[in-house]
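New to this. Explain the following:
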Amino acid sequence: HNQVINKEFPSVNGVFDILKYLHKLDVLYLNWIEELPEKRGGRIQSIFFILLMSYLKFSGKKIIWTLHNKKSHSDRHTMVKALLLRLLLKKSDLIITHASDGLNYIPKKTPGVYIPHPVIPRKQQNNTTHARLNDIIIWGTVNKYKGIDLFLSYLIENKLIEKYRIIIAGTVVGSELTDKLERIALEYENVSLMNRYIEKEELITLIEESKLILFCYQSESVLSSGALMDSLSFNTNIAGPDVGAFHDLAQEGLIFSFKDYNDLMMRMDDFLISKGSSPAKEKKKENFLKNNSWEVFSSRIAELIKEL
């Protein structure tokens, strides 16, 4: 739909690479730019980016930004990140959010649009039926903000930890979190921790062997989740907190949502009864995946760019 002028040239010098393209740039499309202070030379890059935003607005070039989260998951460089966030909310010509709740954070004077995170439909694997060996799978990179350790601690405190077979599949970030999860996995044999990158084929098998994909995200920062959208490709029930994109998909009847861990545990057995999600829910998933492919997303973005 459009010419992406840096498509074949990944950034080497962060946002400074934009200087190469200023003379032929019409639209600057930003993702995760509010995390700039975390990058190498982040403070200098942030100062340059603030100046760049003023130049782009003065020169009539357009700025599109995807608002992925309410705030940064990391508590480092909070003041600079907050400054960048305010600037983006004020200066962007269009803000895209992958959760309807994200529209509440966009100023009325700034155009904003809710578009679900695009997905890549996954083909079924040889019609093979896997035994549901695990009750719960939690997959993806294991960060503190995802609340996995808090969920396990809740189960331990309420003497529920041995009731479910749980597998945690993904690289754990941070030594403190790693130590905590390893201790739990050593103490309780029904909790398996696979602290490594899980290859695609292995992940598919693990998910298809599980009754429920669980997301334990803490609600203070989360709006959307790419792992959530990827999970829709599987014939496995999904549950997540009643916030952001999780709330949206629950309203669509595609996943289950819960208000807190007490609410989750009251409904957990119902989530685990079926061997995969119902045919009606799978049909809904199929239609959703079709209507929210990357092809459909790119067409929608192209139309929005034309309107700018």
